[in-house]
Amino acid sequence: MQSVSSALLLFSLLFLSQEYGALGTETLRHAAAISAGLCQTHPTDLVFILDSSRSVRPSEYEQVKVFVSKVIESLNVGPNATRVGVVNYASQVKNEVSLKTHRNKAALLKAVSKIEPLSTGTMTGLAIQFAINVAFSEGEGARVRSPDVSKVAIIVTDGRPQDNVKDVSARAREAGIEMFAIGVGRVDMHTLKQIASEPLEEHTDYVESYSFIEKLALKFQEAFCVSDLCATGDHDCEQICVSTPGSYKCACNDSFTLQEDGKTCSACSAKATDVVFLIDGSKSVRPENFELVKKFINQIVDKLDVSETKSHVGLVQYSSSVRQEFPLGRFNTKKDLKEAVKKMSYMEKGTMTGQALRYLLDSSFTPNHGARPGVTKVGIVFTDGRSQDYIGEAAKKAKELGFKMYAVGVGNAVEDELKEIASEPIAEHYFYTADFKTINQIAKKLHFKQCEEENPCECESIVKFNTKIEEDIAALTKKLDAVTKRIATLENRIV
């Protein structure tokens, strides 16, 4: 089925390119990615706002629903991917599909197919205001505004609105909603421009009739499509390609380090390191000592070669629960890292070290939290007391996975637990002090093995070896000359 669908889509692209002009290399590349299933979609809260006023005939509204369905088919629909809502409007507004309602594509498409037109007036401004207040609200399933989640509204209308759209559209854009306006038939083009985001040429579309609206689905498939450049081979990584939205990063195999060019690898792994601190924030630490712990962290940060291609640092605080302060790779300068550490607030409560270790395994050192494939993983566990849960299984698994684990204990920390956490040789990975005021001394002792340079060639030995070979060759040459002369003498005597 996939190959048939791919072929049909490519055929459609060729047809469109002939009918409407060349689509261009970039469009065809996106289309090929869509057809080959290599297309990802950035996490998006997407709301369709559909005009179903009396000027839209039932058969035409069905064509709008086909357009909506085709766009949905190209999306990664899911709670952590793209959420889709549908607002239906005429003189009144109806929330047909909430962003929180359907978490898979099949259920969403079925819901769209059941939407019926309202067949009254055209209150486009009212519909946009409804989208701001309701459709894009957290109560209806919208996510908190952030750079990680896009907010997009696609408005389809065929007439002049009976209310004002300019001001309410401006409010929508200010709220971070990217506005696309599609006009059909005798639509007022000035209205579309008042609705749409900049640049207008990318956010406004017009078709003569609803029979052509389906063809616009390709544009939105491309708009939401983020090609997996690693899968398409459109990258120049020497060893490992890691996909990111719309781009990629290079990484290296174990025992190799990514070089400054961000593409090639060298046979050394210690220069590129993912370091995650697991910091005990239980009530026994006390606020004044927690400030000393933050200074301890920053002492170690000062010793690292922090950059985009070398050391990345993550920070997790735990007590009765676990809280990620920031993931690997969020901050790539020592200054930014140290400022983030200083801002960390004290959690208090219990000491669930086992839970924190499991978080390190399941989250901190995964690609979703910034960990890089093929890079040395270092965990630094800091605690001042006995764990209230079991640490053995998680501690063992961390070392089996090749993570280099350091255990630092203060005060009432249990040394047997620290040794259970620490990597071999334990003497190099386990530290203890009775007083928080002396943990700065531990920071001085704790260091990561830097990449050892290859042993330089022993030039003196090589010279001696070459000399001996040359002497042996010279001696053999003399013997050969002597044998040659004797043979010549014997030949003369025979003659």
Count every helix, treating DSSP H or I runs of 4 or more residues as helices. Answer: 18
Give the strand content: 15-25%
Q: Count all strands and give the number.
A: 18
**Major sheet summary line:** 6 strands, mixed
- What characteristic shape results from the CA principal axes? flat
Low-confidence runs of at least 5 consecutive residues: 1-38, 452-458
**CA-CA gap between termini:** 93 Å
Helix content: 40-55%
The whole-number mean of residue pLDDT values reads: 83
Strand order of the largest sheet: 4-3-2-5-6-7
Describe what this molecule looks like in 3D:
Mean pLDDT is 83; it is low at 1-38 and 452-458. This protein has 495 residues and is α/β, with parallel strands linked by helices. The N and C termini lie far apart (93 Å). The protein is built from 18 helices and 18 strands. Strand 2, helix 3 (58-73) and strand 3 form a beta-alpha-beta unit. Helix content is 40%, strand content 20%. The protein has helices at 2-20, 25-35, 58-73, 105-113, 124-135, 166-174, 189-195, 200-203, 217-224, 229-232, 287-303, 334-342, 353-364, 392-400, 415-421, 426-429, 439-445, 459-494; strands at 39-41, 44-51, 82-89, 93-97, 150-157, 177-184, 204-207, 225-227, 240-244, 247-251, 257-258, 265-266, 273-280, 312-318, 322-326, 376-383, 404-410, 430-433. The protein has a six-stranded mixed β-sheet, with helices on both faces. The chain has a six-stranded mixed β-sheet with strand order 15-14-13-16-17-18, sandwiched between helices. Helix 11 (287-303) packs parallel to helix 17.
